[in-house]
Write a structure and sequence with these properties.
about 15% strand; about 210 residues; alpha/beta; 10 helices; six-stranded parallel beta sheet; about 55% helix; single chain
Length: about 210
């Protein structure tokens, strides 16, 4: 059986490399090469996706990136499989793509054999994610779960904010009408609770959870 593919990437070198690899496998035919997601969507809107099997796309492209392209394709043309090939191995991006039913994700520096294996696996109806991608996704999900589990009391947030704003222990005690000793206890507890090493780590966490937003 022959499989018709679309390749979307704003780097001509990558497209040329893919065409060269795919030439070695007669059943893979490239129907379209595009510089961005917008060109792919335009093509699909005119021609539909009935005779297409796989879209190979980069993530960072002008006009419409791979995340948006995958989302649109899966909403409008759910039978068309999608494979992301990107230099960016970012857990949050992978999560977004998985939520939008992406069929696979491999890094751009993947070996030719892995690339062909990913394409073959996906056109045969299965998902394919490289080990590096799986690891980044698992790490991101673990980190998110860990962050959700850390809940601070209102008072702890107040102390954390004042620490992050570089107030001294005495200044924090005066502001909150608490003893210096109590503030020291809060500081030690926060360092322990958030798993950070020092005040810089506390400041970073305060920024992360938006305590220092204006």
């Amino acid at each position: 059986m022959n499989y018709n593919l679309i390749i979307a990437d704003d780097h001509k070198m990558f497209i040329d490399g893919m065409l060269s690899i795919l030439k070695e496998v007669p059943e893979f035919q490239v129907t379209l090469t595009a510089k961005n997601g917008a060109q792919v969507v335009k093509y699909l809107d005119i021609n539909g996706s009935d005779d297409l099997h796989l879209l190979i796309t980069d993530l960072t492209m002008p006009e419409m990136d791979g995340i948006e392209l995958n989302k649109i394709v899966k909403e409008k043309y759910p039978k068309l499989k999608t494979l992301v090939v990107s230099m960016h191995i970012d857990g949050a991006m992978i999560d977004k793509l998985i939520r939008n039913n992406v069929d696979g994700y491999v890094p751009k520096n993947a070996e030719k054999d892995e690339l062909l294996n990913a394409i073959t696996t996906i056109v045969n109806g299965q998902k394919y994610f490289s080990q590096e991608v799986k690891r980044a996704y698992t790490d991101a999900m673990f980190e998110e779960k860990k962050n959700k589990e850390i809940s601070l009391t209102t008072r702890e947030k107040e102390v954390l904010k004042l620490i992050a704003e570089e107030n001294t222990t005495q200044e924090i005690a005066d502001t909150l009408f608490l003893s210096k000793h109590t503030i020291e206890s809060y500081r030690k507890n926060l360092i322990s609770k958030l798993g950070v090493k020092n005040l810089a780590g506390l400041t970073k966490h305060a920024l992360k959870i938006g305590l220092l937003d204006a």
